[in-house]
Predict the structure of ParB/RepB/Spo0J family partition protein.
Amino acid sequence: MTVKRAGLGRGLSALLEEMGSAPPVATNDSKAASLLPVASISPNPGQPRRTFDEIALNELADSIRIKGVLQPILVRPSAEGRYEIVAGERRWRASQMAGLHEIPVVIRNFSDIDGFEAAIIENVQRTDLNPIEEAQGYQRLIAEFGHTQEMVASVTGKARSHVANLLRLLDLPDDVQTLVKMGLLTLGHAKAVMQAKDPSALAKDIAAQGLTVRQAEEAARRSQGITAPKAQASSRRDPELDALESQLSDSLGLQVAIEARGKRGTVTLRFSDLDQLDSIIARLQG
């Protein structure tokens, strides 16, 4: 039986400060960063993030050449005096491209599960994972570490419905998943494709024709022989707001409500517990 640990849904800062199972490797200041040779650090083979945007990586390398590495990466000791990255592989890769020989690190004695959770949290909070990578990370937490969907939601600060929707993406055909990984289909598109009679065919149409999510949803209904509902009264809510709500909800993994009054309005983010609130605050603060 897996026991849920407190503090994991509150972002990396809380994770580092509160996890009694991950004490710092002996230093004078447990919160201070150390310098390690870049060559002594290895990427985590279980890293949930599989793709790295080369353009963004080059831009980060240019920034590091000028300003250095502003935020230490998170590592754990591995075999023979080496270290394994827990969070911050982009910074490590960019540092190599920038010609750095040393990089600031924070060293923690993470277990396998704590290290993987930390990697998931960092990537999700930084929106660095594409939806398929995010779903695969959640699936690993469930399959390898015995998490339930509720525990995954708590760990990542996401709504349980978001976790469930992401996991459903893994049932899509491989060619559709590839289009999502490439960014040719958004999460909203993918959810529409799941309802189609031939998901692969609709996915190709979306990518080739640049269909919006609403158009994809209509195409999925037509493929099932379902007629789109007729418009009601003229005072009906703007469908573009519905689409925007759905897009923001997919991106944040939270329930989002938008109310527009002329040129003004409100955006409401709903959270179900304090872990989700902490996640919202962490993302707003960058």
